[in-house]
């Protein structure tokens, strides 16, 4: 219950506020609500018409008064008006009285009046006309501070009908004797341009700014002129060739050297602006480059990190065509950057370290002797430690590998688990890029003895990659890995790595078939599809090397894989089954061919992307480690962000009710047309198509259609019987996948959907492709809504427009229960991908539902 308002005795004086107490919301509440302040004020604070009338009366009485103490009384009244305005109370009724009281020499009153006028001028343009006379008068005041404030307020009105009144004060302001007034006038030209570009050009203000930039004695005025001219010509560049020519004149040698010679006079912001301009300058010859670098040499010792980074960008861009000089520039830049990393806040250090990280990745050899600067400090935040670990990995070479690996091994026991994981990965990466890995392999194998789950998991993944590149180390590694119990490895990637080694080196691991058999027996308990895929392949490899011991396990794995609801697992099991039916020797050549050692592992970023990031040095691209178009241009943003609140999306209940309904079941997608006909089903996956079963004739998909004859089924049948008997399937049908039927008439109201969405956890989150036909059909959300409706998956809300669409969908089990599946599907037609999140009342049925959902989506547009 809200506390009762505090009541105070009202003052009898009309100049004092009545006894109301304001309960102002905290700043965090205002930011969270993101609503205008007036909506957050208690209702009893809004009933203040009498107080506003009282203020108007008192202001009118003081207007024009020159009595002693009148300015003090005006100040009190102005403060009350501003305080009311700040908390959202509409005091625009006192506009004329405030303007009348502005006729004073008190600069404090002037500032408060300008603040009031600027706040109400936009929403009350008719009242703004009342301010023109006194603002123009103040623009001619003796005090330069008042002239500047009045000119700034006049330009801030931003009322198109009043543009004609701005030209004369701006012209006078640009020629004013006070630097402050000229500085305000320059920015006023930009405001005028945004209100009326035609008026700005008709008055020839850009030419005046250009002349002022090259002649004014005040550095801040020059900087403002440069900023405004860049803004105007950049906006006009797409409209006229003249704007392009004017923009190029800013990069003339005369202008660049004029600014360079005065650069010490500017503040940090202006220096960064000038340095950014210089980075776009194309020097005429090498002497030009060295002259500029000599003029900027002392900027590398500047205390401000932004100035140092901007200077570094100039040095790097100027010397791109001079390889030897470019390398010397790297050497020269190390000291300033390393100094900046160790000074200032953690956030500043991270920004500088991100740029240093970019340089290290481009030229690691030049920084190899400075590796100790990248050791992690105890007080470093985790994001800084992560960058340092990446740089240590990059600069490791034969001369410093031992010291770096020793330091990284110390981090493996760090209490910060993510950093411990990163350090282990760093050791593995160094091992993969070095030729002499004896000591590193020993360190990695020692990690397996630490008996920490996350250390063991990360190490197993690295050992797998290490064996792919250095198979000669298999004996030492397998001896240690063989002692690890599979029950102690729970992370999917680590378990998949262990299973890969069990299959690849099953000849050297006596217990490999029995470990795999135990894992296959617990197939249903394994949630990760990645592990099940590796388990199928490992069982197949082990069978080809040790058939008698693995025969039963492989049969169980193939039966479970064929019945698996995950499409990839199902497909791989069928592939292996058909390969074995066709020819065991062919299966061995496909599954376990002779392998060559991996020489280089794929880089996550292409060289083109890295070069693009380097071109955007000293921008957010370096911090994000991606080019600017990836986080600014709409077509590269991917699925745009939606609020979790689905109330803002349009409900499509009416379109769903009118959508046609028909039953369709998605069974075996891999059956060929002839197999469907043999099974008595239609050529498409209709309702008559039977469910999964042990294949009777899978060999047909491996034989050319032209060679199929009437005698083939008998031959293939005998082969099928033989392989079934070999694998222990006994010609029995493989277990069918979990049958999941959906209620075609399911109903769920938006409120319940939103409540469930907030309560349930994400069961599956996966990106799936969309066919070109589906992309072409998705011109409006209704097309996909009708298609999913036909598959008993209903849409409760949708939104977006091409190329990004978002859908909230639901489905219900057709078993009489109230078990629902909730889906968030974000479709990006430009990338032909859909990001799908599934939440379910019954999480155990999520994968079966996801398979149905994926199948339905794959048929969209067909």
From TrEMBL:
Domain of life of the native organism: Eukaryota
One Pfam family linked to the record: B2-adapt-app_C
InterPro entries linked: AP_beta, AP_complex_bsu_1_2_4, ARM-like, ARM-type_fold, B-adaptin_app_sub_C, Clathrin/coatomer_adapt-like_N, TBP_dom_sf
Boundaries of every Beta-adaptin appendage C-terminal subdomain domain copy: 740-858
Cited SMART domains: B2-adapt-app_C
SUPFAM superfamilies referenced in this protein's UniProt entry, alphabetically: ARM repeat
Keywords, alphabetical: Membrane, Protein transport, Transport
GO cellular component: clathrin adaptor complex; endomembrane system
Comp. bias regions, Polar residues: 698-713
Disordered as annotated region, ranges: 675-713
Compartment list: Endomembrane system
GO BP: any one term: intracellular protein transport
GO molecular function: clathrin binding
Protein family per UniProt: Belongs to the adaptor complexes large subunit family.
Subunit structure: Adaptor protein complexes are heterotetramers composed of two large adaptins (beta-type subunit and alpha-type or delta-type or epsilon-type or gamma-type subunit), a medium adaptin (mu-type subunit) and a small adaptin (sigma-type subunit).
Biological function: Subunit of clathrin-associated adaptor protein complex that plays a role in protein sorting in the late-Golgi/trans-Golgi network (TGN) and/or endosomes. The AP complexes mediate both the recruitment of clathrin to membranes and the recognition of sorting signals within the cytosolic tails of transmembrane cargo molecules.
Protein name as catalogued: Beta-adaptin-like protein
């Amino acid at each position: 219950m809200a506390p009762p308002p505090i009541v105070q005795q009202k003052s009898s004086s009309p100049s004092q506020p009545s006894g109301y107490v304001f309960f102002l919301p905290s700043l965090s509440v205002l930011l969270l609500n993101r609503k205008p302040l007036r909506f957050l004020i208690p209702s009893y604070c809004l009933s203040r018409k009498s107080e506003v009338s009282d203020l108007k009366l008192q202001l009118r009485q003081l207007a024009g008064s020159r009595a002693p103490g009148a300015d003090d009384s005006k100040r009190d009244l102005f403060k009350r008006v501003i305080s009311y305005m700040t908390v959202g109370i509409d005091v625009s009724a006192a506009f004329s009285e405030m303007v009348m009281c502005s006729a004073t020499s008190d600069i404090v009153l002037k500032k408060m009046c300008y603040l009031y006028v600027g706040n109400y001028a936009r929403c009350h343009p008719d009242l703004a006309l009342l301010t023109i006379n006194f603002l123009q008068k103040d623009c001619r005041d003796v005090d330069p501070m008042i002239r500047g404030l009045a000119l700034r307020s006049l330009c801030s009105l931003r009322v198109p009908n009043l543009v004609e009144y701005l030209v004369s004060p701006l012209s006078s302001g640009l020629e004013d004797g006070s630097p402050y007034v000229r500085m305000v006038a320059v920015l006023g030209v930009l405001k005028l341009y945004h209100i009326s570009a035609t008026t700005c050009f008709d008055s020839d203000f850009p030419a005046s700014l250009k002349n002022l930039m090259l002649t004014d004695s005040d550095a801040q005025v020059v900087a403002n002129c440069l900023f405004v001219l860049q803004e105007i010509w950049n906006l006009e560049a797409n409209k006229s060739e003249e704007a392009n020519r004017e923009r190029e004149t800013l990069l003339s040698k005369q202008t660049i050297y004029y600014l360079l010679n005065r650069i010490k006079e500017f503040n940090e912001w202006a220096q960064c602006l000038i340095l950014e301009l210089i980075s776009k300058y194309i020097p005429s010859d090498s002497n030009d480059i060295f002259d500029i670098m000599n003029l900027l040499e002392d900027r590398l010792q500047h205390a401000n990190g932004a100035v140092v980074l901007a200077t570094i960008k100039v040095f790097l861009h100027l010397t791109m065509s001079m390889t030897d000089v470019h390398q010397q520039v790297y050497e020269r830049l190390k000291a300033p950057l390393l100094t900046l990393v160790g000074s200032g806040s953690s956030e500043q250090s991270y920004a500088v370290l991100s740029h240093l990280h970019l340089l290290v990745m481009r030229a690691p050899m030049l920084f190899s002797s400075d590796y100790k600067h990248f050791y992690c400090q105890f007080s470093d935040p985790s994001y800084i430690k992560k960058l340092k670990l990446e740089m240590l990995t990059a600069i490791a070479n034969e001369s410093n590998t031992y010291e770096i690996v020793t330091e990284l091994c110390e981090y493996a026991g760090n209490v910060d688990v993510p950093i411990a994981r990163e350090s282990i990965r760093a050791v593995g990466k160094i091992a993969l890029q070095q030729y002499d890995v004896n000591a590193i392999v020993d360190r990695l194998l020692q990690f397996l003895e630490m008996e920490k789950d996350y250390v063991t998991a990360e190490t197993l993944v690295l050992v797998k990659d290490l064996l792919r590149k250095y198979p000669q180390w298999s004996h030492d590694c397998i001896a240690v890995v063989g002692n690890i119990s599979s029950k102690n490895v729970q992370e999917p990637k680590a378990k998949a790595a262990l299973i890969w080694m069990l299959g690849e080196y099953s000849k050297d691991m006596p217990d490999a078939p029995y470990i795999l058999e135990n894992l296959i027996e617990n197939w249903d308990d394994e949630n990760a599809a990645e592990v099940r895929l590796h388990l199928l392949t490992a069982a197949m490899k082990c069978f080809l090397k040790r058939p008698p011991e693995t025969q039963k396990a492989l049969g169980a794995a193939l039966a479970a894989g064929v019945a698996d609801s995950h499409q990839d697992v199902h497909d791989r099991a069928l592939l292996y089954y058909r390969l074995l039916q066709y020819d065991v020797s062919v299966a061995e050549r496909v599954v376990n061919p002779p392998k060559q050692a991996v020489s280089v592992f794929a880089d996550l970023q292409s060289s083109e992307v890295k070069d693009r990031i380097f071109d955007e040095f000293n921008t957010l691209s370096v911090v994000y480690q991606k080019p600017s178009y990836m986080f600014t241009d709409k077509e590269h943003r991917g699925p745009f962000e939606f609020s979790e609140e689905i109330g803002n999306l349009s409900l499509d209940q009416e379109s769903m009710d009118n959508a046609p309904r028909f039953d369709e079941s998605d069974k075996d997608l891999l059956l060929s047309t002839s197999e469907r006909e043999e099974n008595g089903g239609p050529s498409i996956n209709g309702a008559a198509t039977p469910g999964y079963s042990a294949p009777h004739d899978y060999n047909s998909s491996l034989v050319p259609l032209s060679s199929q004859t009437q005698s083939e089924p008998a031959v293939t049948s005998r082969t099928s019987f033989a392989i079934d008997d070999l694998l222990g399937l006994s010609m029995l049908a493989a277990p069918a996948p979990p049958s999941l039927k959906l209620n075609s008439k399911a109903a769920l109201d938006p409120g319940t959907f939103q409540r469930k969405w907030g309560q349930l956890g994400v069961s599956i989150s996966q990106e799936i492709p969309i066919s070109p036909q589906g992309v072409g059909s998705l011109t409006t959300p209704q097309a996909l809504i009708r298609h999913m409706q036909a598959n008993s998956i209903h849409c409760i809300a949708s939104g977006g427009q091409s190329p990004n669409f978002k859908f909230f969908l639901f489905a219900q089990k057709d078993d009489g229960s109230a078990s629902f599946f909730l889906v968030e599907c974000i479709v990006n037609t430009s990338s032909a991908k859909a990001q799908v999140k599934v939440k379910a009342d019954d999480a155990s049925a999520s994968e079966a539902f996801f398979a149905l959902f994926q199948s339905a989506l794959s048929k969209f547009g067909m």
